[in-house]
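re: that chain from earlier
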Amino acid sequence: MVCYMKKNLIGIDWSRLLVQVCITMIVFCLYACFQEETVPVTIDFTYTIGNESYTTPARITIANNTTGAEKYSWTFEGGQPATSSLRDPGIITFTEAGAHTITLEAWSEDDRQSKTISLTVYNGVTPDFSVEILTNNIAPVTVRITNKTIGGTGFRWVFEQGNPAEYTGENPPDIQFVEPGDHKIILIVENGPAVDSLVQTISVSPALSPDFEIIPDFEDDDYEAPLRAVLANNTVGGLQWQWSSSGGQISNTTVQQPSIYFSKAGTYSITLQASNGKETMTITKDIVVKPNTGLRTFTDIKLGINTAHASIGSFYSTSLRRVVTKNDPDSLLKYVDIAYFGLNATFTFNKFTSPDSVEEYTFDPIPQGQITHFINSLDKCACGISFSESDFDQMTTDAPLQALNITSTAKGLQPFDDVQVPRIVLFKTQDNRKGVIKIKSFHYDGLQSYILVDIKVQKK
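^ sequence. v structure.
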């Protein structure tokens, strides 16, 4: 700036005045320049929380958006680290629940600002509870809950088909389940924004319903005295048992499935009292034991000719009550006491033979086969025995057999044909049981031909 100094005609010192003005303008310009270079501090920051979880340990990342500052001082109350002088302090961890403050002080040579925000961290939620089934798991079931949750402040319970069905609170009352099956117990725990849940399942068995079945032993399935049977316990929901009978002898009155013995004919009652620690129920059933006839009857038994031994079978066991074929296990052969041999489909040559000599008639030998005496032809045996079809049909006990002297003779073992129908054949087993075979018909079917018979034999 150039200043020209002149002196006025009226005596004003223009040169001094101009100097003063120039100095004033210079000072103003310098001040204006200084004001333009000052930058204010604008403080701003935000944070993001890891996994969006405000539960301990909570980890936050600071985003510093401050402008105009040259230096920074962070204070993280309860955080790790507790302080920082970096512009971007990185990840801060809060391990304790509660309210925490984050303070940033930022400054430059010309300005200083600060900002504080609050952050609330909650304890971590770990839902847990135990289930105690009182007494047993048979319906109705009472369940006691023990809450073992860590870090929860709010609790809601759901009991599937339970009573009550829902509950809000830390410690629910005892719960009752009536319906059998699986039931879910659900716990929902809250702690501020943190929510977690746990599900457990209990199984409820059906309620008490007593029942049993009287199953005679194999040898006693004709229900004749003496009779031994198993008391098959079909009770649902029972744990303790008490058996009683009006006449039978029970092997053990407190076991789940005892046996029972009746020595005489009659009508008897059997009672089962079942309990499970919650309730007791009883059920009674009757059994009729028939008088002992001493006789076992088998009807409509097919016995094939020798070529049908593999398919129909030519052997019979009165103790097993079944036909034994060529393809059956060899272990069954020792029980065979009747062996039939039919030569061909014309039935011109037929006879019953002792199992210990079947190899004489095209069959494989039976090791240690039983010895059975037969009278194939009563009309030829000259043995003084008479037994008719009518005698067979009317025989309801073994009395007609007791006096018979049945033994094998050459004449009695003679073969027979299909001319006489029905035909009566007598036999006596190795254990001295006497019996009668009634041949009811001859069935002509080529290699698969067979006879149809009924058998009556003394019991052991």
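The chain has five domains: 1-37, 45-121, 129-204, 212-289, 295-458.
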